[in-house]
Design goal:
Distance between the termini: 61 Å
Bound molecules: pyridoxal-5'-phosphate
CATH architecture of the largest domain: 3-Layer(aba) Sandwich
Radius of gyration: 22 Å
Shape: globular
Order of helices and strands: EHHEHEHEHEEEHEEEHHHHEHEEEHH
Number of strands: 14
CATH topology of the largest domain: Aspartate Aminotransferase, domain 2
Strand order of the largest sheet: 2-10-9-8-5-3-4
């Protein structure tokens, strides 16, 4: 009954999942700084800095740019519920579990939701969006830049074009992509853009950075009914700045410290350099995976999300057993499929601090051992060798056009 629960001693894992990613020691240190009250002038100044940092990472001048106190899913909820009112119609591009979550959340609002579906492992055809919205008054077109459940990236300009034709806002989920692949909120004309902290930003989970432009601010001010969520309503945040700050909810102060340091690290490295690092590491990973005789789930190389690589599980291997051995023997965590891809794919995340060449090489070597132990032949050292060649820049271009 009264047995003593031991001290907290988490294992030191290498997280090569689609989040959370590993964190730089600087972020842990920042999180252990003393708590300060959220109404303290020092905290308010600190939050201003966080906003400045977030604007630089999102590449926006938007006034309303801040971390929502919730995980990435809370970011979806905030983004979707604020513009929608009774009688509205919106379009959500669904090509996997996370983009579907946007549709599911929108369907809880009083608005009508049109789902435009794309096959798993592929992008949603902007032409289908155009057709679905034709002749209708569409409030927004929503999509995920990076669909984490399958490792698919979508280029934003075509959806922006369709949204313009429909007179609709563009809402983009960049939870799995911000700070890992190119994104420029202002240049790409995204009206509401949100992300998560635990992926390519490599901050602790639990916050959803979001940015909204003045068009969205105006639209929210013109609402006839209050937003269907008290917690995620942008209105108090919109009115708070420029005037006296008032209490709305207690923000996760220590997490925000961590986010601040993680954003500083992102900008010290530089966005371009960081995108380049993510790309280089994924290319080496892909070279290694293919040299081991494994296949990627996303067949079109142009559709592959740089931060999450989906690998088809080869026959004769058991999903759970492989991941278990990687965890037990190498302290290395990768993810399985979710939803319809469960048991069919592994998802290897190379995000933020986890995206390092040493991790790629370790993973390929570890996977080789696990596959051999579990009775599957792999050409000795082929994965690591191919990755090394990729880093040396002497490998053939990775699978470009090799498969359709
Ligand atoms: C991880 C993820 C989410 C959900 O984030 P949580 O922090 O788990 O709530 C939403 N969208 C995308 C694209 C994601 O990768």
């Amino acid at each position: 009954m009264n047995e003593i629960i031991g001290e907290l001693l988490p294992p030191a894992r290498l997280m090569m999942t689609p989040g959370p990613s590993c964190m730089d020691p600087r972020v842990y240190r920042a999180m252990s700084a003393p708590l300060v009250g959220h109404m303290d002038p020092w905290f308010i100044e600190m939050m201003n800095d966080v906003q400045v940092l977030l604007r630089r990472v999102f590449q926006t001048k938007n006034r309303v740019t801040y971390p929502v106190s919730a995980s990435g899913s809370g970011g979806i909820e905030a983004a979707v519920l604020n513009p929608l009112e009774e009688g509205d119609e919106c379009i959500v591009c669904v090509n996997g579990m996370f983009s579907e979550r946007m549709a599911v959340i929108a369907e809880r609002s009083p608005a009508k939701v049109i789902r435009v579906e794309g096959e798993l492992g592929r992008t949603v055809d902007p032409e289908d969006v155009r057709r679905a919205g034709k002749g209708k008054k569409i409030k927004f077109v929503g999509l995920a830049q990076g669909e984490t459940s399958t490792g698919v990236v979508q280029r934003l300009e075509n959806y922006r074009k369709v949204a313009d034709e429909l007179g609709a806002l563009l809402i983009v989920d960049t939870v799995a992509s911000l700070a890992g692949i190119p994104l420029n909120v202002d240049r790409e004309g995204i009206d509401i853009c949100f992300s998560g902290t635990q992926k390519a930003i490599s901050a602790p989970p639990g916050m959803a950075p979001i940015t909204i432009n003045s068009r969205v601010e105006d639209l929210i001010r013109a609402r006839k009914t209050p937003v269907e969520s008290w917690y995620f309503d942008f209105t108090p945040i919109m009115t708070m700045w420029g005037s006296e700050r008032t209490y709305h909810h207690t923000p996760p102060v220590s997490l925000i410290y961590g986010l601040r340091e993680a954003l500083r690290i992102v900008l010290e490295e530089g966005l371009e350099t960081r995108w380049e690092r993510h790309l280089r590491n994924q290319q080496a990973l892909i070279a290694g995976i293919e040299a081991m005789g494994l296949e990627l789930f996303v067949s079109n190389p142009a559709d592959r999300l740089v931060t999450v690589t989906a690998v088809k599980i080869p026959s004769g291997l058991e999903d759970g057993k492989v991941r278990q051995q990687l965890l037990n023997e190498f302290n290395l965590e990768i993810a399985g499929g979710i939803g319809k891809t469960k048991g069919k794919i592994w998802r290897v995340g190379l995000m933020g601090y986890s995206s390092q060449n040493t991790n790629v090489l370790l993973f390929l070597a570890a996977l080789e051992k696990v596959m051999l132990d579990q009775g599957r032949h792999v050409p000795a050292g082929a994965g690591v060798a191919a990755a090394i060649r990729s880093y040396q820049g002497t490998a053939q271009p990775v699978a470009v056009g090799a498969r359709k």
